[in-house]
Amino acid sequence: MARDQLSATLSALADPTRRAILARLMMGDAPVKDLAAPFDMSIPAICKHLKVLEDAGLVSRGRNAQMRPCRLETAALRDVMSWLEIYRQHWDQSLDRLDGLLERLQAIDPAGTTSGGAKQ
Predict the structure, then answer these.
(1) CA 114 to chain CA mean position, Å
(2) How many whole angstroms separate alpha carbon 110 and alpha carbon 120?
(3) Contacts of 9 by beta carbon, 8 Å cutoff, 6+ apart
(4) Residue 112 falls inside a structural domain
(5) What is the number of domains present in the chain?
(6) CB 11: neighbour CB atoms within 10 A?
(7) pLDDT tens, 23-63?
């Protein structure tokens, strides 16, 4: 069963090593050996992470003689941001409603006292 692109992207982003690789690639293209340097793992292990990132459309590998520099691809990240935007709007609206409720409560009882007369 084929996974949708958003699921593949989110799955790839779930791993901290892969997120660190993407952060490094934000600075520019890099060969695998440079990407592997900060990690206590083998080159083949880093290549497995890169394969997951490639399959998710987050990284591409160029062809430059014998080197295959890795490059950050941002289209999949834009898709995640678009999906998250729906939830951000929901939370903004929820927080706006909460702010409105708090303002109404403060207008009713500006001193912030309870029904027993004691301050909260």
Answers:
(1) 43
(2) 12
(3) 56, 57, 58, 76, 77, 79, 80
(4) no
(5) 1
(6) 14
(7) 999 999 999 999 999 999 999 999 999 999 999 999 999 87
Q: What angle do CA 17, 61, 49 make, to 5 degrees?
A: 25
- Both tokens of 4, joined, read 């949708």
Task: Say which residue the tokens 């997951």 belong to.
Answer: 52
17: domain CATH number?
A: 1.10.10.10
Full-prediction pTM beyond 0.85? no
Per-residue tokens: 70: 């890795």
Structure tokens at 92: 């903004």
Residues in a beta bridge with 119: 113
